[in-house]
TrEMBL record:
This is Phosphatase PAP2 family protein. It holds the Pfam family PAP2. Gene3D superfamilies: Phosphatidic acid phosphatase type 2/haloperoxidase (1.20.144.10). The chain crosses the membrane at residues 35-52, 57-78, 108-128, 135-156, 162-184. Keywords: Membrane, Plasmid, Transmembrane, Transmembrane helix. Coiled coil: none annotated. SMART domains: acidPPc.
Amino acid sequence: MINQLKALDTNLFLYLNGKHHALLDPIMFYASDKLFWVPFYLVLIFIIIRVFKKRSVFVLLAIGLLILVTDQIASHLLKNTIQRLRPSHELALTDLIYLNNGGPGGQYGFVSSHAANAFALATFLALLLPTHFKFLKYILFFWAILVAYSRIYNGVHYPGDVLVAAVLGGVLGGLMNKGILLLFQKNYTNTIVGN
């Protein structure tokens, strides 16, 4: 069963990775570049401060903790425990894959920390932001999907690495959302009682 899943994952990777185009190369390269997204993050911080005002400190701290925990689980715990080679480090795939300009990445790839972090942030904010930010919520998930897909396009992750990372990020983002809402509720109750 596991061998069949690996074969399916490899075949799907080769199919998706094989659909590359010169026009998409720079887009997918920058989609995987964390520094490229700094202006996007700054816009999100601005929106968070405008929406949550004094409570924005708690939201930003929660995001920092969320990304730290997600990244540690994806980059260290799972990768070092499972030790599944990235497709870019599989000798049998060397002549079959398309490696974009970003290079082969580290040795192990399960799960994608890029995808896990992106889906954690997107889920957390999509659940936390008020309903009238519907368009921004779509943008957040489009961004997360773009980041995740770029990892396959660039030749450094199997689809399974990305899908499991998306689920992991979504679960952690949902849990952090529940935690921050409990904190807000407790803070609100304490303020009422204090008056």
